[in-house]
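Researcher: First entry.
Model:
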Amino acid sequence: MGVAIEIRGLSRHFQKGGQRIDVLRGADLDLAPGDSVALLGQSGSGKSTFLHILGALEPPSAGEVKVDGRALHSRPLKEIDAYRNRQVGFVFQFHHLLPDHSAVDNVAMPAIIGGMPSQDARARARTRLAQVGLGHRLTHKPGELSGGEQQRVALARALLLEPGLLLADEPTGNLDPSTAADVLDLLLDLNRDRRATLVVVTHSAELAARFPRRLRLVDGRFQEAA
């Protein structure tokens, strides 16, 4: 099942050239388990920063993120590492695949890092790759795959440990329209079938229109979008 997210007073600022840049400004948001949300906003509005905070890749400057009722960023580092590894699946615009490893090995990596025996991790990876339509490309390296196929490998990797939270940052940004639609279909199908809470950052209003809930990040806060 998906996770419940409760965000209160979330702020994030950076220092650049001696100036303070406020990206998130006291944002509030609630996500129910299994929610499927598209997040829109101008370039630099803080969309990616928000995903990084939600995935515990970086801390907020102020405010609180609760996951299933528990504060996230005040947990011990070991717990935060386990949260990133087991509860969160990341899909980025750039696939971040290891170029010298096969599709199976790329997908299996999170489980191996988490301590699963490599034989078990690769068996699970083969199953996930089959689920995203790449059962026939198991031994191919990223350079032997199309952009859409590489993104499917990244999806399979994100889903390997059946996370309760799936975060996708412009996952179709480098794909042609047809392939982008296919990848989005996969994300929405997986959200429906597995009930993982899904947050997708996109610049495309057309793709966002396919989500039951749409948010826009404006002046560091969330607004419900039509």
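Researcher: Second entry.
Model:
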Amino acid sequence: MNKIFKVPVLLIILTVGIVLGIQIEKIFSDDSLRDGVRKLNDVLSYSQRYYIEEVDTPKLVEAAIRGITDELDPHSFYISAKDFQAVEESFRGDFEGIGIEFQIVDDTLTVVSPITGGPSEALGILPGDRIVKIDGEDCIAITNDQVRDKLRGKAGSKVKVSVSRIGVADLIEYEITRDKIPLYSVDVSLMLKDKTGYVSVSRFSETTLNELNEALIELNQKGMTKLILDLRGNPGGYLSQAVEMADLFIDGEKKIVYTEGRRKDANEEYFASKTTPFEKVPLIVLINHGSASASEIVSGAIQDWDRGLIIGETSFGKGLVQRQFTLPDNSAIRLTISKYFTPSGRSIQRDYKDKKKYEEYYANMQDTSLSEVNNIEHVAEQDTSKPLFKTNKGRTVYGGGGITPDYILKNERITNYTSNLLRQNVFYQYILNYVEKNGKEVSSTYRTDLSKYVNEFKFSEAELEKFISFAASKEVDFNEEDYRTDKDYISTRLKAQLARNYWKNEGWYSVMLTTDNQIEKAMSLFDEAKQIADLK
């Protein structure tokens, strides 16, 4: 009898033990992950088997992945296999193709500019050239994606293009050997008045430090004694490049940035380590609402160490660090693994927990509560709920919402009329027509003398009237009040667009910076920049 009862009791005990073991394992391990994967797999399987129409399973998988990243934070995201190459190219700093910047104008593929150092430039392709055939096939009404498909390709491969050029009766035939095309992150470097160097950096890619170093050395040779570093609109990129950029200007072994994550292997500290000739150059950094991530690492370190002045508008407020994980089909996911902190301990990440939608997070990026002010002691933020920190010299700065400048100066806003001109690409199209009629005269008058062009060239009132009429023909209705408000900007932008046709980015910036209110303010503040950095 004892034996008869022992067997069921043992079975019961064994069963209870297994159940308890499973529950304990759930407590001490992430079994919910396994359950979630099984649940997702079931949903996909049921959809494939039973849905009323055939389903595109890979499409459903991608939608599910995007749904997952949407629930995490605004900066974790999925990159499809189709988009992966383009994203990698932008960070790597090159791609393979024929090397042109282009736009589709009136259904025609039009060269904005051949890229410096690329095969199209070497063959003599010019701004304004219209590519009408690719490998013998008409390409009128071609789309942007089709242009990339047809003109990009492996280095060493060839493509034939037929070009229509102003003043040339017949089509010009080119056979272009594709090559690696550099994507520059330093848009321009040039000398302004009073021995002031100016460098604009548009992103932080693999090549950014090398490009910046070369630009600074060249400016030094031209007599630079002070520097404006323009990070406006720079969305960031590689953290390592931000650290190295800051290291160019910060001396000793000072901390530049540190990161903290849920996992210990995400915790890192980064310090200055190199000695450079630019550590004693008076420095002003320009930022705006579009300056994010790596741009904020650089400007935050400069501000915390009182190395220079920050001028402009409060930056974006992205203090999260992502790591990329490549998936089996060559797609990828970028996951936030840590937060970064400036040397004083500031996290500059804006709050996103209460933002219900991705769009809402980006729509609320601008801090409209701060008015234009000398903010060297950062009194503009003192009534906010942001946490307080101290710079190297004891100045108050705040975290939790981007980098607020030492001098808050908003960029001048354009009117609706000018916004419509830009939206309809009117400036570029008008200058194409202008060059067709007046290009020889401009070339003969100014040749390679950009300085003469900047100082002397001006569009006449009659020419501006023609521009207004041209804009109306492109469905941009004239608004007299808006035009009067923006007249200087409109004429300057037209002049800059024409300059770009002959001197590329150097021409564009040389003209546009002449009416830039933030540049004008920066030029007047170098004595304070010296004082705050204890420079003689």
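Model: Note on the second entry: Residues 9-14, 22-29 have pLDDT under 50 and may be disordered.
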